[in-house]
Every structure is written in C-alpha cells, then in structure tokens.
C-alpha cells in the first residue's frame, strides 16, 4: 500500500504537541498518523489500523500486543531520559506472570 507522506519541520523548537498540531493543521488526508523515532513500520502495519478506523473513526488505537490474546496483569514504571537536554519520562509496560 503506497501512502503519501509529508514531513513538516518547525522553524524553531516548540514541543511535541505543537509540532503535531501544526502537522495536523496542514494535513489534507482523511487519516493522520504520528510516528515517533522509536516506531518501526513493517509491511502490513497500516492496514489493520485503517480497518479499525473504518469501523469506528472516533475510538481506535493500535493493538500493542499483537502476539498475545490475553494480558493478565501489567506493571508500569517510569524511567527518566538522561541523554536529552530536557527532562521527560518514558513509560515502559511489563507483563507480570
């Protein structure tokens, strides 16, 4: 599936949300997908997401656990970034057995 892509760069650093809002305001498509630096898109990643959006365009999210049908318990920890010039937190989710 060929998907048109447009990369928008901000003139100055203004934060993630402002950058995404700017990108959304310039969008001409029916579906907007934001990808972060850690995202890896393999062949076939978009079609299931678009199929779900077609069913209910107001409530959809990517399926985080594609190889499991049931996640009984999860535990969330927050790890601060130390390699950036600003402070933020990343959420890591671990399955507890």
UniProtKB/TrEMBL annotation:
It holds the Pfam family Glycos_transf_2. One of its GO terms (molecular function) is polypeptide N-acetylgalactosaminyltransferase activity. It comes from Hucho hucho (huchen). Signal peptide: none annotated. Residues 4-84 form the Glycosyltransferase 2-like domain. Residues 70-86 have a biased composition (Basic residues). Residues 87-97 have a biased composition (Low complexity). It comes from the Eukaryota. This is Glycosyltransferase 2-like domain-containing protein. Keywords: Disulfide bond, Glycoprotein, Metal-binding. GO terms for cellular component: Golgi apparatus. Residues 70-97 are annotated as: Disordered. The keyword Oxidoreductase does not apply. One of its GO terms (biological process) is protein O-linked glycosylation.
């Amino acid at each position: 599936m060929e998907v048109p892509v447009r990369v928008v760069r901000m003139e100055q650093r203004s934060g993630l949300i402002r950058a995404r809002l700017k990108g959304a305001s310039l969008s001409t498509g029916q579906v907007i997908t934001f990808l972060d630096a850690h995202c890896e898109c393999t062949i076939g990643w978009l079609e299931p997401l678009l199929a779900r959006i077609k069913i209910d365009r107001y409530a959809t999210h990517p399926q985080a656990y594609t190889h499991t049908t049931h996640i009984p318990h999860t535990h969330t920890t927050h790890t601060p970034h130390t390699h950036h010039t600003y402070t933020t937190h990343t959420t890591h989710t671990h399955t507890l057995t």
